Amino acid sequence: MNTNAHKVVIAENGPYLVSGSVPLAVQVIAPNTEGLSWDWVQGRLFQAEASYTLCRCGASATKPFCATGAISAAVSMMAGTYLDVSTERYRAQAVIAK
To answer: How far apart are CA 23 and CA 25, in angstroms?
Structure first.
């Protein structure tokens, strides 16, 4: 079994949990000579660790990364309620979602 396989887990009401040293970059649609959307061009390349979390709520000050260590609550995308975004809670979900 390859333990370094790329993996993305969507935590319920939480961030994307990314592991396996997945590269992360902005991709921009570039126009062709006629001005039509045509090709993907790589933009900014982010320094990605072996594992990281990506923001889904929009409240992170460190986008695209989730600021679970910096904030204590984020707006739930499902119901507009506030929820705990402690890193341990989402790591536990990732274990369940294997």
So the answer is: 7
